[in-house]
Design brief:
The N and C termini lie far apart (111 Å). The chain has 570 residues and is an alpha/beta fold. Strands 8-9-10-6-11-12 form a 6-stranded mixed sheet, sandwiched between helices. A 4-stranded mixed sheet has the order 3-7-4-5, covered by helices on one side. The protein has a two-stranded antiparallel sheet with strand order 1-2.
Length: 570
């Protein structure tokens, strides 16, 4: 009778825990839906977290050999790629995290118009279809994230894992069965044997757990990915019909991975919607070694069907990437689908940088190259980055932050934000010439190129800089390349006026209410070359000693008048 009461109490406690867990989960889902609706169409600049850097690069690294062009580290850094990625990313799963990163760094200039149009159609559908968008996000959030490492890091090492014969686990369970049988012979003996065998099992569990724990986490994510694929295919979202069909096809390839295993695989390192039963699961695994058993049971199968999992991961990642792109589109009044031309041209109408607050819109059109001059802080570098970022977004996810944006499908290169490399002993000038050399080499490859240069060869003296920059920039012209460069060297605008269109940013000197001079920038690009300089004026406005800026003005005027530096020590 007492045993019956204990059993009733245990069952009642489990039922109560299940009810509480269900109610808690439903409340979390409701709050999550409110959050999704509230935050859609909002984009803000977010600095990236270096500690998470490795977690979203796994799919990208795995696909480095894909056809197409990988945006190199220099260009990616010049575009502030990590911050751009972090700011755009609205993913709740590792699939979305990793595929978006891959997508932003992978340019396929041979993508068919049909493929581009389908990606654009699906993205635009997600903006309008809030019901299905939220259903997709809920499923992907339930999938969650792997933690600090990509699942592909573990998959790549699975073939090296030492296998354990499954018969050893069957022996463990048979011993448990024999111990249970011993209760009918002697309860005290049964209890003692149970305790001893549980201790043995815990020891076995811990000894194996250390070597396979991370892999078990990856298996858990693989199983959750398959479950999510099944659920998303079951939603039957009309504009994802082909993707759903492919998900089910690849699921059949992974039929040896049973979704029922998930109940016993330890659930950890999750960043999505979780449940409250993982503690009980961990206890069961500890005494019965179930998660380790399923690990070895699935090990060979997952290694052999890695490509099928990769395809499922890609499709789910693409869907969540399109949700992030839909959010980007909905965040601005003026975004557009870029147009791709066979003509060597790049054009923007009311273009902005998506991560610059209150960014001033600029319009431009260029066919042969653009040389941009202007005073300090007038907007040259921001304009360069704006064009680079919009070209990158146009060629990867088919959106631009402008009323109109058009370009020829091209490889993107830049050399803008270099620095001395103390670790390699490389000077700034050496870093510059190495960076520019890779663009010269790319031009020789014959592919269409758009390149962005900021202050060519700033790391050397004026005379040699102007001479070398002139010939480098002239070399970076032609039928397969457009070069957009910013410079302080007005001499270049005359030397290269037949090869480049001259544009400039200007400033104005205004007086405030107290009759103090201040400098005002419109951040609007103009045709022509800059005729003003403000470096010395800024010294004056910032309160530098009069002796400094007055004598500097005299030196500057003397050089402009005579072409020679004349220093008066008196």
């Amino acid at each position: 009778m007492d045993l019956f009461i204990v059993l009733i109490f245990i069952v009642g406690a489990l039922v109560l825990a299940a009810v509480i867990n269900s109610i808690s989960t439903q409340n979390r889902i409701k709050r999550f839906i409110v959050k999704l609706k509230k935050n859609f169409g909002k984009l803000e600049r977010k600095e990236y977290d270096p500690e998470k850097y490795t977690s979203y690069r796994g799919y990208f690294i795995r696909h480095l050999d894909d056809e197409g062009f990988i945006v190199d580290d220099i260009t990616w850094n010049d575009a502030e790629g990590e911050t751009l990625y972090t700011s755009i990313n609205k993913s709740y799963s590792s699939c979305g995290d990793e595929y978006l990163y891959y997508r932003l760094r992978h340019i396929d200039i041979d993508t068919s118009k049909e493929e581009r149009d389908r990606f654009i159609y699906q993205t635009d559908s997600l903006i309008l279809d809030e019901v299905n968008r939220i259903k997709l996000q809920l499923n992907l959030a339930t999938l969650g994230k792997t933690g600090r490492h990509s699942v592909f890091e573990y998959i790549s090492l699975l073939s090296k894992v030492k296998r354990v014969p499954l018969i050893l686990f069957y022996i463990v369970w048979i011993v448990y069965a024999l111990i249970i049988a011993s209760f009918f012979y002697n309860v005290t003996l049964g209890v003692c044997l149970t305790i001893v065998w549980m201790i043995v099992c815990v020891f076995i569990y811990l000894s194996h757990k250390k070597s396979v724990e991370n892999y078990i986490t990856s298996f858990e994510y693989i199983v959750r990915t398959i479950i999510t694929a099944e659920k998303i295919a079951g939603l039957k979202v009309p504009y994802y019909d082909k993707e759903c069909e492919e998900l089910l096809k690849q699921r059949k390839e992974l039929k040896g991975v049973k979704t029922s295993y998930l109940s016993f695989i330890k659930q950890s390192n999750r960043a999505g919607i979780t449940d409250m039963m993982s503690g009980m699961t961990a206890i069961i695994n500890c005494f019965f070694l179930i998660d380790i058993f399923f690990f070895y049971k699935m090990l060979k199968y997952v290694c052999e069907k890695e490509d099928a999992y990769d395809k499922i991961f890609e499709i789910l990642g693409k869907i969540e990437t399109q949700i992030s792109v839909a959010n980007l589109k909905a965040s601005f009044d003026n975004t557009c689908v870029p147009s791709f031309s066979d003509e060597n041209v790049i054009k923007g109408v009311d273009m902005i940088h998506p991560l610059v607050n209150n960014c001033v819109a600029n319009s431009f059109e260029n066919k042969k190259g653009m040389l941009i001059t202007g005073s300090n802080a007038s907007g040259k570098s921001t304009f360069l980055r704006s064009v680079l970022v919009n070209a990158l977004l146009s060629e990867t996810v088919y959106v631009a932050c402008a009323k109109e944006f058009s370009l020829r499908p091209s490889l993107l290169f830049s050399s803008m934000s270099l620095s001395d490399s103390l670790s390699s002993g490389e000077s700034y000038y050496m870093a510059e010439i190495n960076s520019i050399k890779r663009i010269l080499d790319a031009k020789e490859g014959g592919k269409n190129i758009i390149c962005f240069l900021d202050e060519v060869l700033r790391g050397t003296n004026t005379v040699e800089r102007v001479a070398a920059a002139t010939e480098i920039l002239r070399y970076l012209t032609g039928e397969n390349i457009i070069t957009i460069a910013a410079t302080h060297d007005i001499e270049l605008t005359y030397l290269l006026e037949k090869d480049f269109d001259n544009c400039f940013f200007r400033e104005e000197i205004r007086k405030d209410e107290e009759d103090k001079e201040d400098i005002y920038f419109s951040y609007k690009i103009n045709n022509g070359r800059s005729e003003t300089r403000n470096a010395l004026l800024l010294l004056k406005m910032k309160g530098y000693p009069e002796e400094i800026y007055k004598k500097a003005e005299g030196l500057s005027k003397g050089f402009m008048d005579t072409g020679k530096w004349q220093y008066d020590e008196g």
